[in-house]
Specification:
The chain is an alpha+beta fold. It folds into 3 domains: 93 residues, no CATH class; 271 residues, Creatine Kinase, Chain A, domain 2 (2-Layer Sandwich), CATH 3.30.590; 169 residues, no CATH class. 38% of the residues lie in helices and 15% in strands. A hairpin with a 6-residue loop joins β1 and β2. The N and C termini lie far apart (99 Å).
């Protein structure tokens, strides 16, 4: 063979590589690689696939198939659960974890039992220090700090959003994961001892995110949208990661929020027993009108974040865990169904009883504003922290056998002696009687005026409206805004932010009236005595008697003509701003 031909053949052979798996010559111009990053032929490439979770190339012999999705061994161990009852496999998020049994169940198997839910109660110290979720040790940031968000409870946020065009959820999660990983690598004093490398792509698990998709936000003209679910964080890292996520959503993907979107906050409550939940529910009922003034009217009018449904009288029947569950589910409607209708309240405990996901706060409308999420997190975590402390105090009040019905807190709202006196006055003066003693009537009217601390007028007050008010006021009570901020130790910056939200949303005041509909009494809580005090009434409900027309006896049904003492709107502003 001529020398030139031999040289040409040797050059061609040097350009031909062999498949690392089968040793055949590789003729393609576009190289493909195996899990060890060695070049392989197209035929052998069919023996490999990409893990759905980490995107690593893995041989099919080492792949676990779950619902037709491929997972490598590491990711299968980390994110996939198997139902203890039937063996069905899926991601952790799609299972219910039974803390008592320490096992995962699919929803079908877990729904087979609709008995009362049970839960373990951990110490408050454990809740504040346990590294159950995102933590410095596992997620490579220096330490948890609490300068921006003071509570030490874990909190997770669900961000619902829309897009102007189609956004692939897998690519979106990758982009969010990379951005959070990069923020960790750029952090001051991060712990890099366990990092795979300084490449964000090698540490994408730091995102601690889940994008389950959410059809509820894709309606009408808002064709595209999804939900970003953050695994719980503690303290300032929550705000830092929210900033990163919102920046990626808005500036890299053109995200926006429509009226179909919400922002949901989950708060760790593993230190809560039934009496803590009782206190928290009562407090939420007393502050809820204010909360609705901080969000758009659609949040009050819609079906996704309804008000607390229980009446004040219902609280008197709570004496145990099972009794609280009956109370919360409106007397016996608990099921393990994820979509039980009780989950669609602004204050949602169903996610705790059904899936151990903590307290969910659903009042807030959709937002991509990190500052709104920060102030919201501060406010509600402080409410949960304070309710825990009050619950502990009530437990100590009864030597570890708490009784909400007999507690100072409850009795300060509902005084049985006063209630008895009111019913006596009703029987003597109005109830079932055509005529009354005017002298006795005037005496009782003056007693009630003084008790309610109403201003003295040139005419006496009609008695029945005052009696009705005292009898029903526990049902119609609301805390003053200043007392709310004081009781829950709300920082001044957050308090001012909340008040500015009310002014911004409710310029015409119409929404305020609806938020405070049927609320007639202002109460304030004293943390020293652990009791409430009625401090004022919305006076427009108290008419005066047309005094000159009264003789020695008169028909009770004809006593009185309406005299508007105060303007309701003006009074509402006094207690909401």
């Amino acid at each position: 063979m001529p020398q030139t031909d031999r040289a040409i053949n040797e050059a061609i052979e040097s350009e031909i590589s062999c498949c690392a798996d089968c040793s055949t010559d590789i003729t393609t111009d576009e190289p493909v690689y195996n899990a060890d990053n060695d070049e392989i032929c197209e035929s052998c490439d069919e023996d490999y696939t990409t893990c759905r979770e980490c995107d690593e190339t893995t041989h099919v012999d080492n792949i676990y198939w779950v619902n037709s999705d491929p997972y490598c061994g590491d990711c299968h161990s980390e994110v996939i659960s198997s139902c203890y009852e039937c063996g069905y496999e899926d991601t952790h998020e799609d299972f219910v974890y039974d803390e008592n049994e320490g096992e995962y169940y699919c929803h079908d198997c877990y729904q087979e039992s609709d008995d009362y839910p049970s839960w373990d109660v951990y110490s408050n110290e454990y809740v504040k220090t346990a590294e159950s979720f995102t933590s410095p040790r596992k997620d490579y940031y220096s330490r948890d700090t609490f300068k921006l968000i003071p509570s030490k409870r874990y909190m997770g946020i669900e961000i619902e959003t829309n897009f102007h065009e189609y956004v692939d959820e897998g690519n979106l999660r990758f982009e969010l994961d990379m951005s959070i990983a990069q923020s960790r690598l750029e952090g001051v004093g991060y712990d890099d001892s366990n990092l795979r490398s300084n490449d964000p792509e090698d540490n994408r698990g730091l995102g601690r995110l889940h994008i389950p998709g959410d059809g509820s936000v894709r309606r009408g003209e808002h064709e595209y949208g999804t939900e970003v679910v953050m695994q719980p964080r503690r303290g300032d890292i929550l705000h830092k990661d929210v900033q990163t996520i919102c920046d990626v959503l808005k500036h890299a993907n053109g995200a926006y929020v429509s009226r179909h979107c919400g922002m949901h906050l989950h708060i760790d409550c593993r230190d809560y027993d039934w009496y803590h939940f009782s206190v928290l529910t009562l407090l939420v009922k007393l502050i809820e009108p204010h909360v609705y003034t901080w969000v758009p009217p659609s949040r009050l009018n819609g079906r996704w974040c309804k008000p607390v449904s229980q009446s004040f009288n219902d609280f008197s029947y709570i004496t145990s865990r099972d009794a609280f569950v009956d109370f919360w589910y409106d007397n016996g409607s608990f099921t393990n169904d994820k979509y039980n209708d009780k989950r669609y309240h602004g204050f949602n405990l169903h996610c705790h009883f059904q899936a151990n996901q903590g307290i969910e706060i659903r009042y807030h409308a959709g937002t991509l504003n990190p500052d709104k999420m920060r102030h919201w997190s501060i406010f509600w975590s402080n409410v949960v922290d304070t309710a825990y402390e009050i619950g502990q105090s009530m437990r100590d009040e009864f030597d570890y056998d708490p009784n909400l019905n007999q507690s100072r807190m409850f009795k300060s709202l509902y005084n049985r002696a006063i209630d008895k006196k009111v019913r006596e006055m009703e029987a003597n003066n109005t109830h079932g009687r055509d005529s009354v003693s005017i002298k006795g009537y005037m005496t009782d009217s003056e007693k009630m005026r003084r008790y309610l601390r109403l201003p003295k007028r040139d005419k006496p007050y009609l008695l029945q409206p005052m009696l009705n008010h005292v009898r029903t006021r526990p049902q119609q009570a609301v805390m003053s805004i200043s007392n709310i901020f004081d009781t829950f130790n709300i920082p001044d910056e957050t308090a001012e932010f909340m008040k500015s939200r009310m002014v911004e949303i409710n310029a015409d005041k119409e929404h305020i009236d609806k938020c405070f509909d049927n609320r007639t009494s202002i109460v304030e809580f004293d943390k020293k005595t652990m009791s409430f005090k009625y401090v004022d009434s919305l006076g427009s409900q108290f008419p005066l008697i047309d005094y000159p027309l009264i003789s020695s006896t008169y028909y009770a049904s004809e006593l009185g003509s309406l005299f508007d003492v105060h303007g309701r709107n003006r009074e509402l502003l006094q207690y909401t701003l």
